[in-house]
Design a protein that fits this description.
By secondary structure, this protein is mainly beta. The strands form two sheets. The chain has a three-stranded antiparallel beta sheet, with no helix packed on it.
């Protein structure tokens, strides 16, 4: 929660399509950015946009949240993986 607003993002760095929380699982920097543990890509926690590092202008994918009483629910996403995600060259 930031400034009384809950936000959720897909746990996938745009730099390498791997989890943002890889490593020790800590993603929030002392400066308040979300940081990928693998290569240091920084994201703005307000909108998921790239704030620095190797995210090259891309941003985190926002996940819609719904509230039901005291519970928050993340709604399912339908995401197409990058075309080359499952390709492996044997050359």
């Amino acid at each position: 929660m930031l400034d009384g607003v809950c936000r959720a993002y897909l746990n996938q760095c745009v730099h390498r399509a791997q989890p943002v929380d890889v490593g020790d699982g800590q993603v929030l920097t002392k400066d308040g950015f979300l940081e990928c543990g693998a290569h240091g890509a920084l994201y703005n926690p307000v909108d998921g946009s790239c704030a620095g590092g190797p995210c090259t202008g891309g941003g985190l994918t926002a996940i819609k949240l719904e509230r039901d009483g005291d519970a928050l629910f993340a709604l399912a996403l339908e995401i197409e993986p990058p075309e080359d995600l499952y390709e492996l060259s044997l050359e």
